[in-house]
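User: Hello, can you help with two protein structures?

Assistant: Certainly.
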Amino acid sequence: MEPSAQRTTLAILGGNPDGLTAFSVAVRTAQGVFERTAPVKARVDLAELVRLALQDAAIAPTDIRQVRVDQGPGSYIGLRVAVTFARCFAAFAADTCELLAADSLAAAATAAIAADPAIAGKRIAIAIDGRQGRVQFARFRSVEGATLATEAKPQLLLDAEAIAGLANADVAFADGAALQRLAQTSAHAVRAIPAVSATALLDPRMPLYAASLHELEPLYLTGSYVGG
């Protein structure tokens, strides 16, 4: 069987933390990675974005052997559309297509390492605004040549609880609203989460897990999955 990392893959990101782009898709083939991202703050048809990425890669939908999708936490509409599309795409491909899911916070951590390789090996904290003075918070550690390890699973925390969970050596990232609040109240330097696109889901450091077509559901910003 073809190794998972070498399969022709479609990656779909619907939970972009910056909220500027609705969707990002990337297609990986033996010829390279072909990415399409929705225009900033514009409505877009995800199916059309995927069609264009497949056209760029010069392949047909039936050539896809693996679908990767971020499960959240993230925006309600973006995740609902992305997860539903990924499930349908994989379902029509039947047993010829593998469906894998990813944590949006891990995708942000992976994008942060790609943007600044100097932080590889350090513990990375990611905070996404959960509103009402709360954040979705998780910690990860990158080891060279290995998959990103989750040290603290995503939890919905008060800002003060997230700050208390930071160690001096942590490299912390947050999105817009959370960035402003944490930067004002934390002694730690908090950076802005870099742009996260579907290519993060193709990064060999990205932790992924096999997803069931019938059980895969989005994990929303304030969903009941938190802390599970």
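That covers the first. Now for the second protein you mentioned:
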Amino acid sequence: MDLKDKASKIKLLVFDVDGVMTDGSITYDENGIEYKTFNAKDGHGLAKMVRNGLLTAIITGRKNGTVDRRAVDLRFSEVYQGVKNKLPILEAIMQKYELDFSQVSYMGDDEPDIPILEKVAISACPADAVKKVKNVCNFVSSKDGGKGAVRELCDFIYESQFE
């Protein structure tokens, strides 16, 4: 089955945050409050997925209120932060929505993402992901994390399903 056929069956798009939805920078103010910067074009792509009935989820290793705010703004179906072992969380989400790995896309950028990337139908990463991740992905964006990689994946899945 080619990648476009796999994309036509996706019902759930799952994302890591740092290095995927952001450029991986972690900024603190003098009070130790952490800030993240998100890409508006990525947000438009995610909103288009939600408007067309696809589920979206975040599974990330760090915990930050900025992520909660972004998830609310974009109507993410599921958000899990502070997760070190991501695969069991994904499996619980899949069970909740009665999905299997052939209906899931995941975008990650670093080694903790590999166990999921090895199982899902669309294993995606930004252009600046680490080499070990790129080696297991079947969709390597031409854009870096936080710079349009999420939008490129959303557009590919959208075009495979709705155009």
